[in-house]
Amino acid sequence: MTKDLKDNLFLLVKSMTKSEKRQFKLYVGRLGVNEDSKFLNLFNIMDKLSVYDEAIILKSGVVKKQQLANVKAHLYKQILISLRLNPSHQNTRSQLREQLDFASILYHKGLYKQALKILDKSKELAIQSEEKNLAFEIVELEKIIESQYITRSISGRADELTIQAKELSKANVIASKLSNLSLQLYGLFLKIGYVKNEAEAKQIRDYFQARLPKYDINELGFRERLWLYKANLWYSFLLQDFLNCYKYALRWVKLFEQQPDMVDLNPVFFIKGNNYLLEALFYTKNKRKFDHYLRKFESIVAAKSFPKDENVEALSFLYLNVNRLNYYFIDGSFQEGLYLIPIIEKDLQSYKDRIDEHHTMVFYYKFASMHFGAGNNKECIAYLDKIISNKSLSMREDLLCFSRVLNLVAHYEGGYDYHIEKLLRSTYKFLLKINDLYEVQKEMIKFIKGLQDVYPQDIKKAFIELHKTFKTYENDPYERRAFLYLDIISWLESKIYNKPVAQIIREKYLAEFS
Predict the structure, then answer these.
(1) How do the pLDDT tens digits run along the chain, 514 residues long?
(2) Do the strands 52-53 and 2-3 form a parallel or antiparallel pair, or are they unpaired?
(3) How far apart are CA 263 and CA 316, in angstroms?
(4) 8 A C-beta contact, residue 411 and residue 372
């Protein structure tokens, strides 16, 4: 039975670098008894396979079917132990946990003084590195040891540890509440996208205010400020308040500029902060600042000193390329950006196990939109079909909604009339089902449906009427969300003035920002 890249152990083996595989074999071979062990033989077979195939493994005879599950579990554990020992996976957090384990061993052996010495150094490093959860664990172990290692200074020492424990606990509680709020708001954004009406907006405001803990900004450390800015960022995104998105994303990025040593400890947060800053600038159409921060972001991530692992590389690929595409959307220079699509699509294959399906679909929507803007309707429809035909995609209802609306427009624009009637019915049914049928979508579907009854000489008049209708929604705080995904107004103006949609967008951008 073939399971193409679906087996967890197989995925782990295939993610290993040559040096990691070499170290694993040295780690296993340190004991002669392991040289011909079942789990090592299984590793060698999996390493040679291009896809996971259980039949080939069993046919090799290295393990019986009844033993396979246990041998795989043992191999998985041994690989993780080996990877933990690899210098490339050592960081401050792993070093602190290791020191905490060492201190615990010394404590259980009754070597209290040695344990306390390790803990004192580790606690200082943990606090400097903003690892306050680990610092709290260290203090708690110190309290246990001090209660058994009696000295004349125990009274003062007890007070010192009690104060430290209270301060760390308070900071951890605030950080936990802020991180919970940030994660919950992010979950809401992935599920529903931007708020759709005043009732939803009020619900989000109440939700945010009820869960935002009381704090004094001057007492917050790096970690608490980071979660505070993240929570405010997602709150602003949900409400389509892109100026505040820019404000909090910039504070997030500046936080790392003020404490550059935190980039090494938190490269993922650094990458995401830069992405959200660029996203906010994209929505506010500030191409000059966008270009500045994109170049700066590219330069930092490309530097040899920037920390790199598989996760960081995947996120760097994702956010850099989404924003490279966005750069051409700001002013409608779609034709200039087309060269990126085959490059990104090819590289996307090598990251398919590390980039989730939702973000892959975002790329496809970007590709489709860029082709539409460049007048390539056939290519646009091909990418949209990848999204629409994906039955397992349950996230981002707004992405699914506007993929179908753009699909309708691209079919009309490309002259594929034989599909329009069927598409209208399926799109209408889909939008009703996800409760996302708002005025912009209603008017768009009604318009396209009615075009078949309009005389050729009256088509431009019909475009003008729809354009007037949509202009009333352009500044509506909730209906305008449609225009974030699909610039229908510019498309209508392209039909009215007989100009390419890219030229219309470009002229608008120059009129506003030149």
Answers:
(1) 334 446 899 989 988 888 889 889 888 887 655 656 888 889 999 999 988 888 898 888 888 888 899 999 999 999 998 888 877 667 888 889 999 999 999 988 888 889 999 999 999 999 988 899 999 999 999 988 887 765 545 567 778 888 889 999 999 999 999 999 999 998 888 777 788 888 889 999 999 999 999 999 999 999 999 999 999 999 999 998 999 999 999 999 999 999 998 998 899 999 999 999 999 999 999 999 999 999 999 999 999 989 888 889 999 999 999 999 999 999 999 999 999 999 999 999 888 878 888 889 899 999 999 999 999 999 999 999 999 888 776 556 667 888 888 888 888 888 887 777 788 778 777 777 766 566 777 787 777 777 667 776 777 888 898 899 888 888 887 777 777 777 888 988 998 998 999 999 999 888 887 6
(2) antiparallel
(3) 14
(4) no
Cβ burial 44-64 (10 Å sphere, 16+ → b, else e): ebbeeeeebbeeebeeeebbe
d(CA 436, CA 427): 11
The tokens of 451 are what? 């075009």
Dist CA 292 CA 266 (whole Å):
23
C-alpha–C-alpha distance, residues 369 and 375, integer Å: 10
What pTM did the predictor assign? 0.79
How far apart, in whole angstroms, are the C-alpha atoms of residue 413 and residue 373? 11
> 123 and 156 in contact (C-beta within 8 Å)?
no
> How many whole angstroms separate alpha carbon 301 and alpha carbon 291?
15
Q: Identify the residue whose tokens are 């936990």.
A: 176
Task: Give Cα 104 to chain centroid, integer Å.
Answer: 37
Q: DSSP labels for 164-201?
A: HHHHHHHHHHHHHHHHHHHHHHHHHHHHH-S--SHHHH
CA distances from 332 to 40, 326, 471 (A): 55, 10, 19
Cβ 406 vs Cβ 377: under 8 Å: no
Residue with tokens 């294959």: 349
* Distance in angstroms (rounded) separating the CA atoms of residues 172 and 137: 11
Query: 52: helix, coil or strand?
Result: strand
